[in-house]
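Illustration 12: Putative membrane protein.
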Amino acid sequence: MTSAPAHVDSPDYAANAKYVRPWYWYDWANSAFVTTIGTVLYGPYITTIAKQAACPGQDTDLACHTNLSLLGIPIAPGSLAPYTTTFATIVSAIFLIFIGAVADRSPRPARLLGIFAWLGALAAAGLFFVEGTRWQLGAILMVLATICLGSSLVIYDAILNDIAHPNDRDKVSSRGWALGYLGGGLLLALNLVLVTMKPFGLSTGMAVRISMLSAAVWWGIFTLIPVLGMWNLRGVERPVTAVGEGAVGGSLKQLRNTFGDLRRHHPQTMLFLLAYLFYNDGIQTVISSSSLYGAEELKFEQSQLIAVILLVQFVAFFGALLFGRLAGRHGAWRTVLWSLALWTLIVIVAYFVPEKKFIPFIVLAVGIGLVLGGSQALSRSLYSQLVPKKREAEYFSLYQAMERGTSWFGTLLFGLVYQLTHTYRLAIIALIVFFVLGGILLSRVDVREGIRQAGNEQPVLI
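Figure caption equivalent — predicted structure in token form:
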């Protein structure tokens, strides 16, 4: 198909190319939190804290069938971590859309990115003080950190449309994800040494708390690179706010029209978001629950789990680059569909991994690593093609509400299945439905038509 001419309001990609390298570094910065805290340490650690509160004096390696109580609602200690993620996402679904509308009107998006990143890092640093039976504090801080992460990523993802030409977005997005996995993996390697060796007589709990603190500090410090590197970046001209409306008032008015506009004028974008809602929930639930599944169901030690997640990180670095190359030959849409078939197979294999059999668990981890980075990076670049001009951050807020660490259908189902059956095996196998439904919906997305509806330039290959 012949490419359509660029829109008259297209950014000056040649001039903005200097911002690509600093843009990459925010993936490096926030992946420390996503990996060390969100994926590896938070779930098992807050579950231990919750067990101590619900079953005082009992060995935390044993199952605790006494529920916690929050505003009269019974919560199984083993369900606290996925329920926390669920609540964070419900709040994010409202908050992030508002942030997207405000960000589209921000003259300096990198500055706003930095504000949310540093607030999130501060909340994550507060997890150091979660000990004893302070499960409420741990849940609140994780909710705040997750919302701030999502807010910063709304802005970060939207910037992709200003700095990368449509033909380059698969490559740029994949490289960003790859760098993120490398950065998150390096810090996780250091934390593996800390949790395993426990130098200076540290207890396991203290080693975990220090590791979570290190992830927060990493996130905060390395955010300086993209913020300062993109300090002068300005996107394409945004809609002019009416006199007296103000940025917030204009944003609220803009939000009232978002979903109606999506349904009436961008049905292919809406269909993609619906597909992404399902399959990304499956991906995020596998990621966020993997350490919990390994610790509680397969009975692996914390050091073993960190080693496996570390392996996933480095395999995912190469997996993201590999899938970027596949997209360059076969298109991002088709490559993402292939990845969903692989995710379905991975969940089935996870159900049958025997307890305390480490080698099969490692093989499973390699499979996850290969498909993880590619499916996420290419979903981001594919969606960027479907976003209407001048509303990038607003539309990416819809996307980010379903992004990493903010899935809620999957975590809710995972938590409910465990609470009803007291087995994580049935909880993990239930996630197949998300990959199947997401794949069916994605196969029906007409990407070329969606790009035309958004008024964007058609890339050579999709």
